[in-house]
Amino acid sequence: MNKNTRTGSHLFFIEFFIVLSFFLIVSTVCLRLFAASHTISTDASLRCRSLILQSSVAALLQAGADTPEKLCCHFQGSIIKENTVKLQFNKELEPVQNGEEAALCLIVTFHCEEMYAILSLHSSSFDNDMTASWYRPMTRKEALQ
Amino acid sequence: MRKMTGLSLMVLILLSLCLLTLSLLSVSEAMTDRSLSIKSAEHTEQYYAADLAAKKILEDIDETLAGILRNAVKSNAPEEQFYRSLVNIKAIIPDVSLLSTVSTDKEASSDQYGVTLAFSVPVSENQVLTAMLMVSYPAKDNDTMMHILSWKTINTQEWEADISQKVLRLSTASNQATKEIKDE
Fold it and tell me: Which of A21, A45, A132, B83 gives the lowest tally of CB atoms within 10 Å of its CB?
């Protein structure tokens, strides 16, 4: 009778050990998968947001903000250096305030005479360059000069 | 006691499998999202590259028109000379095609009176950026020689929906079953 109880408790502990080790292995794998999924998802979201930001700046350039000064009027806290404008944003795509860490940095390099600008976007996980151009048709006066 | 042995392990295995499936699905969805955003970024980049190429063609057209205007102004009938010279624009800029010549209807509005030009720039394998321009003689100093009528991307390939479905073909399945029975 005692032997049977001992064997039963042995079996129970063996099973408990197997269950625990199996749970540990599976939970580790699942945790890593969920963490990877979260990282990838955050990256995808940031890429989408950055694309929207780049397209918006390109649209602004085409709509008439074709100089660094004009573009700066639309974004608070932007920094002008010669023919470049540096725009910094947080993850919510809001302009970065003093001391806040920037998640996205967009550098717009103007080539005013050739009527285009290079939009270089930098983040911790990816970089993306895009060229936006604008056009002003020639008037009769300009043509005859 | 013995009957209950292994039940907790079975339940745990089942739950673990469910959890694993969920985590794999989550990773798969995140990967799809990321590949979609990368494709979207690539397409936007391609569009703006095509846009830049199209703007360069616009500049070429403007410069050509300025040359034509300068020559036309010297003649006695500058407007007629301007429109007559536009017929040969394709020889100067091969990318551009002349869609219509000048309208003879003098009562037409300024948007309709002029010469229509068109050109297209490839955006990707399946898309082109097409632009239509109206060129008209600038009578005043601040008048422009052309204005854009349309600026849009067009799909060059027709989209075909995949409506095929993988279904069980009963005739084939029954034939295979009878073959197997015969073989046995």
Answer: A21
